[in-house]
Design a protein that fits this description.
single chain, alpha/beta, Rossmann fold, six-stranded mixed β-sheet, globular
């Protein structure tokens, strides 16, 4: 069953040069329980698509069917996405308080275990943590409300490459445990290959190619996809297994 279905989405913006086609007829389906990757260069429309699916931005035309009301988002920059004036206990509790949930203290403790941070983190502020720890907190804030669908917008791009793998492995573990469907937005093909089940490649507001990670990474058809893969991977792509996003840096 589909968690998300988008049909012929269009969204245009205007600037001094004229109309910018952020989305120009985008259609896709995301199945329940999968991590669906969206990849492309900056400005191709990835973030706009995520915002439209979440209802943050309204499309000019086309349809979105989102089969849940339990949604969350993890942003790119954990330095700006966490309120610097709030303790971690308050950051984690905020969504539960809004929903008038029971057992808030218990749920905060469970999420701390899930994101692998010590109990003494609760009385600290965001500036007292590293970038990787802040992103763990951002993930914890998102999953504590038990979402069925999440948009992750470049969630590791601001982190050092040695920390990226830790966060990606943490996210994969949490996603499987909680069975969260995810739209994972990134410009990094190594990250997409490591974490996603399916992937769509965007160029100038259009999806030019989509399929399983195995299909796209081993037998892509579109010249743009081939160029992206060639730029990201120096080998001949014969190995069809998931590759550690840090491989390049270990050689």
């Amino acid at each position: 069953m589909n968690m998300v279905r988008c049909e012929n989405l269009k969204k245009y913006f205007s600037n001094a040069a004229g109309a910018v086609k952020a989305l120009d007829g985008v259609s896709l389906e995301i199945e329940r329980g999968e991590i669906f990757g969206l990849v492309g260069e900056s400005g191709c429309g990835k973030t706009t698509l995520g915002k439209i699916i979440l209802g943050i931005t309204e499309q000019d035309s086309g349809q979105v069917a989102l089969n849940t009301e339990r949604v969350q988002v993890v942003f790119q920059d954990p330095y700006n996405s966490l309120d610097p004036k709030m303790k971690i206990s308050d950051i984690l509790a905020e969504g539960l308080i809004i929903r008038r949930a029971d057992g808030i203290e218990r749920q905060i403790g469970e999420v701390l275990d899930l994101i692998k941070l010590p109990k003494n983190s609760l009385d600290k502020y965001p500036h007292q943590f590293s970038g990787g720890e802040r992103q763990r907190i951002a993930i914890g804030r998102a999953v504590i409300t038990k979402p069925e669908f999440m948009v992750c917008d470049e969630p590791v791009s601001s982190l050092d490459v040695t920390i990226q793998l830790q966060i990606l492995n943490l996210f994969k573990d949490i996603q499987k445990r909680l069975n969260i469907t995810c739209l994972f937005i990134s410009h990094d093909l190594k990250v997409i290959r490591f974490i996603c089940d399916k992937v769509a490649v965007m160029l100038h507001g259009k999806i030019v190619e989509a399929g399983s990670v195995h299909e796209i990474y081993t037998s892509s058809n579109h010249p743009y996809t081939k160029a992206l893969l060639k730029a990201a991977f120096c080998d001949n792509m014969k190995n069809d297994g998931r590759e550690d996003p840090q491989t390049k840096h270990k050689k």
